[in-house]
Amino acid sequence: DAMVIQNPRYQVTQFGKPVTLSCSQTLNHNVMYWYQQKSSQAPKLLFHYYDKDFNNEADTPDNFQSRRPNTSFCFLDIRSPGLGDAAMYLCATSKDRQETQYFGPGTRLLVL
Amino acid sequence: AQSVTQLGSHVSVSEGALVLLRCNYSSSVPPYLFWYVQYPNQGLQLLLKYTSAATLVKGINGFEAEFKKSETSFHLTKPSAHMSDAAEYFCAVSPPWGYSTLTFGKGTMLLVSP
To answer: How far apart are CA A6 and CA A26, in angstroms?
Structure first.
């Protein structure tokens, strides 16, 4: 089945130690999104790619970066995780602008 | 700027009772509107969406929502709750142009008792 896959499902890192979260999709969608969802809060868009064009939300911290080496994969890099970065990170894809977003199962990040 | 308000962080119903989850939005133009459901430790699943066609939208699992422009509302309903409906529900809005970047409400946890 076509889907959005996130690895790992759970990630533990140490304060200040760089971490990378992975998202892949078999839907061949043009747009990929990264959301941060803290406990008991709404998902918040960090950034998105339309093909190779990167779009950063104005309030996304510089500590968060992303890479999209090809259509299928997108990575979220946290350069120096702080305790406040512990959250669920959701990846989503859509075929094009204004198309429905399909979400992966998320990666729960714990920062020690 | 767009925003979404979901009234009630928790809603409790009995199995078989009507489900009503409230969502109001703020937008300078009629937006696209969505309801997503999230089960524990899982991603978001689209229940239904409104994109300026019929104002009454039917979704999966027996849910439906009605877009009311005069009330800036998009409430989610289901005639008869099932235990499997227990989850968190998010209302979201996106502009009707450009990218479909979603702005979510804070969510409503639906609790279903036997």
So the answer is: 12
